[in-house]
Design brief:
- The protein is mainly α.
- It has one domain: Orthogonal Bundle (Arc Repressor Mutant, subunit A).
- It has three helices and two strands, in the order H-H-H-E-E.
- The protein has helices at about 10-20, 25-30, 35-45; strands spanning about 50-55, 65.
- It has a two-stranded antiparallel sheet.
- The longest helix is centred in the middle third of the chain and has 13 residues, at about 35-45.
- The relative contact order is 0.21.
């Protein structure tokens, strides 16, 4: 995978450090990024082991550091 660029990774990192649990819709609102961009960044970060998805569901997922 290629490294992420743009404003979304930086903004999402700030959200993840500020909140204990983050959902994709919450990340969308707090970063002013599209839902697709937030989900892509969450998946990229999770694949590298930097965050963890804690619900184990396909929908209504939450991530934490």
């Amino acid at each position: 995978m290629t490294p992420l660029s743009g404003k979304t990774p930086r903004a999402l990192r700030a959200v993840l450090t500020e909140w204990p649990l983050v959902s994709a819709p919450m990340g969308e609102v707090l970063t002013n990024a599209s839902r697709a961009a937030v989900q892509r960044n969450l998946a990229w970060t999770e694949a590298r082991g930097l965050i963890r998805e804690v619900t184990g569901q396909g929908r209504y997922r939450l991530w934490r550091m």
